[in-house]
Amino acid sequence: MNRKFIKNSNLVLHEILNSEKCKDIIADFIETFLKIPISTLKINPNLNDSKSYGIVDVRVITKENNELNVGIQIIDGNYIQSKMLLYYAKIHTNQALYEDGRRLAKTTTINILDMSFFSSLNFHKIIKLKTNAMNDSILEEVQMHIIELPKLKITKNMRLTKEEAWVLYLRGDDRYLIAKAIKKYECIKKLDDLLKNYWKEEKI
Known about the structure:
Elements: H1 9-17, H2 23-34, E1 38-43, E2 56-62, E3 67-75, H3 80-93, E4 106-113, E5 124-128, E6 143-148, H4 162-171, H5 175-184, H6 186-203
Parallel strand pairs: 3-4, 4-6
Antiparallel strand pairs: 1-2, 2-3, 5-6
Helix pairs in contact: 1-6, 4-5, 5-6
């Protein structure tokens, strides 16, 4: 994991990103991994205990006018499956705290793992719940994305797609490729600058 996140990965990014000036970074990250075009994004402002639950809790409206509730967290340690399920439940039920008349929307979580956990080789996978009944896909509304950072294979001549750039930046183990990601993608550079300033203030 990128050493700029040390202390508490979720806490550091929560403190930095839960701001109107950082909505472009959040939107860029969500668009990259969920492959959806975002029209508007709103941070849930009513969570008193949100620092204990991941990085951000947002409601997005896509350019196709679909609403989606999204939470992002970094997971480490034990009980990975339980943490993913509990986080999903927390983010989904948080919608009751919006208090602005919005209807409940489909919830998707993005879970970032600094370890290899699943048996498949792909670094990005999607978990959906299904019933054993044919043509009954209602539970597919439950969706969790898993990003296993170590599983991205590094090559010298990587084209560095935005998804690869985000993963490599979060991993933080290849200085050359991190510098390339920062130079190539504006939102990654902006986050890196914010993290540098954050740690300068922490040292002071």
